Amino acid sequence: MGVREFFDLDAHGTDLRTEALAGLTTFLTMSYIVVVNPAILAAVSGENGKPGIAVAGTSTAEVVQMLAVVTILAAATGTLVMALYANLPFGQAPGMGLNAFFAFTVVGALGVPWETALAAVVVEGVLFILLTAIGARKYVIRLFPEPVKFAVGSGIGLFLAIIGLQEMRLVVADPATLVTLGDVAADPVAMLSVVGLFFTFGLYARGIRGSIVVGILTTTLLGIIATYLSFVDSGVLAIDAVKQGAIVLSELPSATYDITPLAGAFVGGLDRVEPVTFALVVFMLFFVDFFNTAGALVGVGQVGDFLDDDGNFPDVDKPLMADAVGTTVGGMLGTSTVTTYIESATGVEEGGRTGLTALVIALLFLAALAVVPLAAAIPLYASHIAVVVIGVVMLQNVVDIDWHDITHAIPAGLTILVMPFTYSIAYGIAAGIVAFPLVKVAAGDYENLRVGHLALAGAFVVYFVVRTGGLLG
Question: Which residues cross the membrane (predicted)?
Answer without folding.
Answer: 21-44, 64-86, 93-111, 148-165, 185-205, 212-232, 252-270, 277-300, 320-342, 354-375, 381-399, 411-439, 451-472
